[in-house]
Amino acid sequence: MSEIKDGLATLAADVESALTRRRTRSAAAISWFREAALLPVLVVLVVVGALLNSHFLTVSNLTGIGQQVSALGVVVVGESLILLIGGMDLSLEATYGLAPMVAAWLLVPVAAFGDGVLLNPYLGILILLAVGVAVGAVNGLLIVKARLNGFIVTLGMTILLAGIQDGIVKGQSPFNLPSAFSYLGAANIGAIPVSLIVAALIFIGAGLFLRYHRAGRAIYAIGGNREAARAAGIKVDRVRMGVYVAGSVLAAVGGLMETGRVGSVASTQGYGEGIIFSVFAAAVIGGVSLQGGKGNMVGAASGVVLLGLVQNILDLENAPNYWIDAIDGIVILFALVLARLIGGEKSAE
Amino acid sequence: MSDPYVPSALASVPPMASAEGIHKRFGSTYALRGVGLSLYPGRCLGLVGRNGAGKSTLVSILSGITAPDEGEVLFDGQPAPSLGEIAAWRGRIATVFQHSMVVPGLTVAENVFLGRQPPRRGVPKSLGVVDWRRMREQARKIMADWGFVVSADAPCASLTVEQRQVVEITRALAAGTRCLLLDEPTAALERGAVLRLFERIRQLREAGVAIMYISHHLEEVFEICTDVAVLRDGELVLTAPMTELTKDGLVTAMVGEKKKDHHPERAVVPAPAPGLAPPASRGLSRPGAADLVVTSVTMASTGVRLSGVSLTVRGGERVGLTGLRGSGATTLARIVAGAAALDAGEVRFGGRVLTVGDRAAALRAGIGYIPEDRQADGFVPLLGAAENMAMTITDRIARAGFVSPKRRELRAAPLARRLSLVSAGLGQPVRELSGGNQQKVTVARALASDPALIVAITPTRGVDVASKELLLAELDRITSETGASLLLASDELDDLAICDRVLVLVRGEIFTEFTEPPFDREALIAATEGLGDTS
């Protein structure tokens, strides 16, 4: 009797392990499929774009798309990191506006709506980064240390920062920026915009960091099961703090790119344009989970490119101006449904 | 307290980990009072005690999560690291908690080396670059050394509960820990997995690992432990080698008094308690009126399979369903309760066909439901006890859609009394209640609607011995008094003892039926494994 039972137990274990192996293989296949899930969609969009407009596949248009999405893309990297640890930061869009605004305000003469300090442009970039660090640190302290709700904290922060952005320049847009300051957003190396190169490097760097760095792996562990991460000796709070700071710094860098591209800082840059919706849309379409612990940079980058392609096609086709937002909304909803079907991202409901 | 007990065979061997004179207070209540115990290499110490006896507090102190108010924890005679140095604790002692401490999105190898991945050679260690290949190889090697069969590259989300546990044990061994705390490790395992776990525990023990095994299941403690420690009301009341104890002696130590035989007496029906409907006009005498008839229920779409299962529960009858995990016993009960869909077949109750997968319709038809996972489906943690209990009857107690708290409490109070619910008032959020009392709220919620049929799934899981008996006795009594029938799915044989007959499911089919209580434990276990007489 007991021999039979033992035999059965062994058999069950064997079957189980065989099943696991099969499940593992299919799970690996699924995860690969998810990472590359948006590729066919991107290909279709490129084909559609090329068929609709002969100008679409030209180098200048494609690099134009690249330049247009790089600023958004850098913010998406920041937001993705925060989503991966199971957090959420709405204030990235305000940092995206405020950080370049503060810097520009200190750089340009009063006539160009600055405050007339005429700071060295490199110092300006340092200040821009410092604003990012400061905002991220305050968010982090309130969320991680004081344990306030991240959604509400960053919502309040957004409004505060956007108010400062408006207030220091009284609603004006500083222009006439020093070339060193706008280099990142405006310059080209050969035919390729510097912002595109830098954004690509940031994506690749973040991807490698997440995959190969201890802290990168800790981010996944914290987002996937915070208690398990803590019990394994991971400095959970320190990593979360760091991620909030990194996210805000990336948002500031994204803002610098946008400022350089446009040539001035509008008081609406960021919050006024509501870019946070595109940021979330790109991340989620790219498979970054709002529940944390799931997602990668390949996906996030495809989400960004997808939004950029759609925007560009609509621009080229002269989509009626007043309807562009509505069309954008439809595309985002459609892409989310698609991402849900492919990636299995369930809502929290 | 006296000195920690030392197994005589090991008098000369120093303990691997020990707690000395541990006191811990939460507010005005003592969780632990002067507890001292030691874990020795090659021994497995069972830690038992009723809910609230202080087991969890002791585990969290030994794991370095909570600091004791007084007393200290020693490893190999040295004082334990300070509380914040979790990594240092993990090198000395590791706990496999009831809830999984595995990160589902990461692979097995990563979970094994969570937070301490091997650094890549040739790169400065301070850069923190992870060597994936070495991590996989090491994880594979450790598991191979211990004979664990789990693929190192599998994402943990795809693993079974048993395999996740293996991952956690491997994680502890990889950190060099030779001292393991297993907190209710069998709670979510089916019998085969439990046997394999016990095999692993023996193997670890033989290799000199010190183990502490926390469990509600005394038979498991007898099966696997070499020594036992009993906590009662925060005090260590007994430590002894297993061989010196009987099950009765152990229960006496836990409860503190001689426990009476708990088999409910069917013949003696006490007077109906207030607050419950009087025996309805339906009842045993009128077969057919409230019969549950399940015909050829088939399910193939989800993980658990059911193939053409049919059964009938007559009004007033109490039927048990049992089987291993995945056998379909639980799923069948959920289908009857309207909590799960089916592919084919039908469920009739009281002559009418029930809408499949519609819990509200089943409730209207008179089916009360005690779900399996009480944390997820049993109650709303932030709402009060009374509100949770009256949740199934808001339509009855509402006036023009408004429910007055008073009417709610009026309905809930008798149930709370009956089930001996311990709370600081019926308005207390259920989240703040102990596990056993939470389960009582779940049971009360099902009973509040005066159901004609109660569907209960593992109604006593995670509940201490005394509450367990009370819950079973109440289910027994209520079904007797009101003539309600009962469909009880459970793999705990104590639960099934209140049933008139028990159906055993194996791989989605009814394998055999036991019609004569009391049911033979060995025969039931054998049947769930698919062994024995099928006639």
Structural features, described:
The complex is a heterodimer of chains A (349) and B (535). Chain A is mostly helical and 349 residues long. Chain A has 14 helices and two strands, in the order αααααααββααααααα. Chain A has helices at residues 2-35, 38-52, 59-84, 92-107, 121-145, 150-168, 179-186, 194-212, 214-224, 226-231, 236-262, 275-285, 297-316, 324-343; strands at 188-189, 192-193. A two-stranded antiparallel ribbon of chain A has the order 1-2. In chain A, a hairpin with a 2-residue loop joins strand 1 (188-189) and strand 2. The longest helix of chain A has 34 residues, at 2-35. The model of chain A is unreliable at 345-349 (pLDDT under 50). Chain B has 535 residues and is of the alpha/beta class. Chain B has two domains: 11-102 and 159-255, Rossmann fold (3-Layer(aba) Sandwich); 292-528, P-loop containing nucleotide triphosphate hydrolases (Rossmann fold, 3-Layer(aba) Sandwich). Chain B is built from 18 helices and 20 strands. Chain B has helices at 55-62, 86-90, 108-112, 132-145, 161-174, 191-206, 218-224, 247-255, 329-336, 359-364, 374-378, 385-389, 394-397, 405-418, 435-448, 465-482, 493-496, 521-528; strands at 17-26, 29-39, 44-48, 70-75, 78-79, 94-96, 179-183, 210-214, 227-232, 235-241, 292-299, 306-313, 318-322, 344-349, 352-353, 367-370, 453-457, 485-489, 501-506, 509-514. In chain B, helix 14 crosses helix 15. The longest helix of chain B is centred in the last third of the chain and has 18 residues, at 465-482. Chain B is globular and about 75 Å long. Residues 258-287 of chain B have low confidence and may be disordered.
